[in-house]
Amino acid sequence: MASITARGVGKRFSVRGREVVALHAFDFTAGDGEFVCIVGPSGCGKSTFLRIVAGLTDATEGTIAVDGASGRRPRANLVFQEHAIFPWKTVRENVAFGLRMRGVGRRQREAVADAWLERLGLARFADAYPHQLSGGMKQRVGIARAFANEPEVLLMDEPLGALDAQTRVLLQEEILRLWSEQRTTVVYVTHSIEEAVLLGDRVVLMTASPGTNKETFVIDLPRPRSIELTGTPAFAAWTLRIWEALRDEVLRAAAAERATAR
Amino acid sequence: MSAREETAAAKTAPRRRLAPPRSLPVPRLEHLAAALSPIAVLLLWQALVSWGILDHRFFPLPTQVLRALWSLIRSGRLWHETSITLYRVGWGFAIGAAGGIACGLIMGVSRLVRAFLDPIISALYVIPKIAVLPLVMLIVGIGDASKVAIVAIGVFFVVVINTTAAVLAIDPIYIEAGRNFGANRAQMFRHVILPGALPSIFTGLRIAAGIALITVIAAEFVEANRGLGYLIWQSWQTLVVENMYAGLVVIGALGVVFAALIALAARLAMPWQRRGN
Question: Which residue in B177, B183, B272 is closest to A88 by CB distance?
């Protein structure tokens, strides 16, 4: 397992000659085996931060350290919002993809993939192609693909954002269940405060663009958690408290969007 | 809907009285229209020529064309001419497509190579291949080689432009996923780039097949003593007009066959595609 320590992370890039600051002086930590949620308004840079942790892009300022138990750089795999599973591979091939890239032999990687398909209720679809699956199933494949690669850090970029509310609830429960078995370090980006409170040990709030730290909350709700929690007063108190903290930022982001649209 | 959800929905839906089934399936209007259109054209043609509105010396009756076609088949002449055309267009297409795909993949992946080759390709693409036929003949000699070369050139340009676009059109999220899961350059190529570009590559091949056929016929007009284009040209020169039309019909048929072959190849190469693409 791995821990993440980010100090003063910033990211700027130029769009059509103008400079855009996506992220600014952002501090973030995730302890070994911790489930940390990042919540922020649209365009605050939370997805950008995730990509920096994943190593897909570099921060333009600040430091970021992902420390694993072994010497080498720990694996940090992403679950994307839009199903980024390859349409030209079968479900099983998709789930086994990370293992294949690492050189794991066919029989072994197919066994690992099948085990994960079983855990996520996809065993029947192992030889199907993504176009035959519903949105919820495709996201399950994306989640399975990340877990199957046995990463030390799991990065989820609004993985349930594109799904209908009912499927979302089902997958939230699955994520809770899988995580409690694996105890991977998770960084989970979401728009939904309820989702963040339900899933996370800690919730990190970001400001509107350029994104930086707003506030951090330690969610003291007991584990193991389930969907019944969402009906309790403690849960409601948490979501309200976080919304109060976030509301101004959401309004600021919306105003900024209207200003640029004009 | 998953299978499980669908059967559940069927069980809970209220029973309704359905209309009694018709005894014959009613054909859709579009199918009727599609079937009628060539027949209507042929009937119109037949009528216009019979009434003398179109000069029968230059516009033979469809029945005459069919008769000429039949006698060409029986005498073996049709196969004699068509086989050499198929040989030329087949080899030209294969060479041009292979080169175009290889070059297009490299250009799609490498910004530097793309920047270097783009202007050259854009400039050469628009030069009529027939115009450079004499030049090609100087280099590869007269005969089949020059036809194959000119077809290959025509096919190459269409395929390379299309393939480059195909690679560039791959959704960046697949590239990100590939990188995030540890694919090196070779793996990225094999597992992400190539399959991601295949659907558009096949579209390009369909277009290129048509261009290959057009080019070989044109080349056989200009300089040949054998081939489908030669048959058409010679028939026109000697005013055996029915043979000319028969040749045109065969070209049309070849076009249909080529398109079907490429569609078949596409279905085999891309088992993941939805049916009906």
Answer: B272
> Which residue, chain included where needed, has tokens 């590939």?
B178
Q: Over range A133-152, report the average pLDDT.
A: 92
Contact between chains at B182 and A102 (C-beta distance less than 8 A): yes
Q: What is the pTM of this model?
A: 0.81
* Cα atoms found within 13 Å of the Cα of residue B267, Cβ hemisphere only: 8
Mean pLDDT of B97-118: 94
Contacts with B258 (C-beta within 8 Å, 6 or more apart), sequence order: B209, B210, B213
Is A88's CB within 8 Å of B198's CB?
yes
What tokens were used for A1? 């397992």
Of A84, A130, A131, which has the smallest distance from its Cβ to B177's Cβ? A84
CA distances from B49 to B42, B60, B71, B123 (A): 11, 7, 22, 45
**Contact check, Cβ <8 Å, A145/B195:** no
Is B274 close to A131, i.e. CB distance below 8 A? yes
- What does the DSSP 8-state code read for residue A254? H
Distances (CA, A) of B139 to A234, B14, B136, B142, B146: 84, 77, 5, 9, 8
Q: Which value does ipTM take for this structure?
A: 0.88
- Phi and psi torsions of B268, nearest 5°: -70, -40
Angle between helices B62-75 and B241-269 (to 10 degrees): 80
Per residue in A85-126, pLDDT (tens digit) is: 999 999 999 999 999 999 999 999 999 999 999 988 899 999
H or E element in which residue A249 lies: helix A233-261
**H-helix segments, chain B:** 3-12, 29-50, 62-75, 77-109, 111-125, 133-140, 144-168, 172-180, 185-188, 194-222, 228-237, 241-269
A20-48 pLDDT tens trace: 888 999 999 999 999 999 998 887 888 89
The residue of chain A nearest to residue B181, with distances taken between CA atoms, is: A98
Residue A67 contacts residue A2 (beta carbons within 8 Å) = yes
Coil vs helix vs strand at B110? coil
Helix (H) / strand (E) element for A188: namely strand A185-190
Of A40, A83, A94, A15, give the one whose Cα is nearest residue A209: A40
Angle at A56 between CA A50 and CA A57, to 5 degrees: 85
List the single residue in A56, A82, A87 with the smallest CB-CB distance to B272. Answer: A87
- State CA B54 to chain mean position distance: 32
| Angular region, B2: left φ>0, alpha ψ -120 to 50, beta rest | beta
Sheet architecture: strand order including A2-15? A18-30, A2-15, A61-68
Distance, in Å, from the CA atom of B256 to the CA atom of B250, rounded to the nearest integer, reads 10
Could you give all domains of chain B from N- to C-terminal order, each with its CATH number? Answer: 61-270 (1.10.3720.10)
Residue of B nearest to A97 (CA): B181
Report residue A209 as tokens.
């663009």
pLDDT at B17: 54
Q: Please calculate the CA angle A135-A139-A144 and round it to the nearest 5 degrees.
A: 150
> In chain A, what is the straight-line distance between the N-terminal and C-terminal CA atoms, in Å?
47
